[in-house]
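Exercise: predict the structure of this protein bound to DGJ.
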Amino acid sequence: MKIAITLALLATAAATPALAQETTLPHLEAHGARHTLIVDGKPFLMLGAQVNNSSNYPAALPAVWPLLDRLHANTVEVPVAWQQIEPVEGQFDFSFVQTLLDQARAHDKRVVLLWFGTWKNTSPSYTPDWVKLDNRRFPRMKTRTGADHGTLSAMFRTTLEADKRAFVALMRYLKDHDPQNTVILVQPENETGSYRNPRDYGAVANALFAKPVPAALAKALGKPVGTWTALFGAQADRAFNTWHTAAYVNEIAAAGKAVKPLPMYVNAALAGPSNVPDPDGVASGGPQQDVLPIWKAAAPAIDFEAPDIYDGKAPDVLAYLDAYARPDNALMVPEIGNAEAFARFFWAALGRGAIGYAPFGMDETGYYNYPLGAKALDAPTLDAIADKYALLAPIASDWATIAATHPTWGVAKGEDGTAQSTTMGDWTITAGFGEWQFGQKSWSWIKSEPPEWANRPVGGGVVAQLSADSFLVMGDHVRFDFAGRTGGPANGMIVRVEEGTLKNGTWVTSRVWNGDQTDYGLNIIDRPVLLRVTMGHFR
Ligand code: DGJ
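Solution:
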């Protein structure tokens, strides 16, 4: 049975702008508060995975592709290290980049390039030896006592110019050797900032710190020009370092974009979901959520800031997703732990309009970053993300189109597994967890033990409202109940539940769910499926 209803016809009455169709460079489009990544002229949902840090050599790539295929990923995030492309100053070697491009194309994967330059987790470890050993030309930050800190200072043009030259050479290589845009996004630097040193306390930095904040920053923040301390109080040193780090990265990104204007983003070492962090504990300078306004003002060449999520507590993960999904910032999760417990947040990210998602440490090189991520990539660990990606992969562009132009709700099981609800139009939708597919937990006339997944950190889903009474639903280890909202029109009911898929924006039904499959909610357990739910009112 083929029901030819295009997404345009399914769209809500409030007309939404048409999405770009012409083939262009990858770029971002804003649709109200939502963002869309356009690749090959079409909306793209990045079903990504990031390899381990040292997998940026041809020898490691055979350990990458089988796992990416196993995950049904369409994109791989891979580092390119300054030390590997410019081992000798001025002499560039792009052999790994070419191997990566060739193999990614052969394996039908898009690439996100991670530029490991001045900062890699704040450290200069990926800079060439001629950089990391020359502290006069490329000075480290000074601590409050005048000692050398481990992080390179953002204050020196020598360092900035050298990093920029290498990055521009990389972008030129892409311009010349990647006309098909296998590389869709670029991340200049990796987790910028400095730990236990809120700013450089050397003479150059101190002289700048003594001056008023730049007028552009004060204006962007809606504050009067004043000293750093007057404007930022206890966070003054960190605000100063954030401005200068962001400006440094911006100059590198802008120079790269002048050669090939791919979208560029930066990733954040996070420091707690809600409080303004301790400036000595946080990676000061990085794009944590509370300093996004500084990054936005200092780095207009950066398309978006993005959270690296390794804190698996559900409220924290959701707080991070909410903090980075902003009208002025596309939500993309460039790193998240690869353990099973993190996978359910994929749904929460999708519901917030995420343009991409990538668990970290996804290759078969035998390295595992437990306790941040999984102890091993065993079948349950991989299936937790692979089952979701397998469902989304064939409809990735359709989903990206829908998410840009329709209300969506993403839900992930919380710490205690209680049900969660939302209201979309006249309908209240509830996601329950730890239920068998049949019956109710509350039944006393027949006994049952809880299902084995009730005690596992699994469960979630996403709902898109296609029209007033019609919804797309996906999920796993979840029970969705649909009901008329309190105070809404009487006699609301499910009219029809169809399992199916989307083909180029057209819904295709494979079967209709009814009877046991709908009498106790829509129970999607270990086989994620795509449902279309039509609601109505009887009179
Ligand atoms: C975040 C960094 O961005 C990654 O490169 C990696 O070091 C992880 N932390 C930890 O495995």
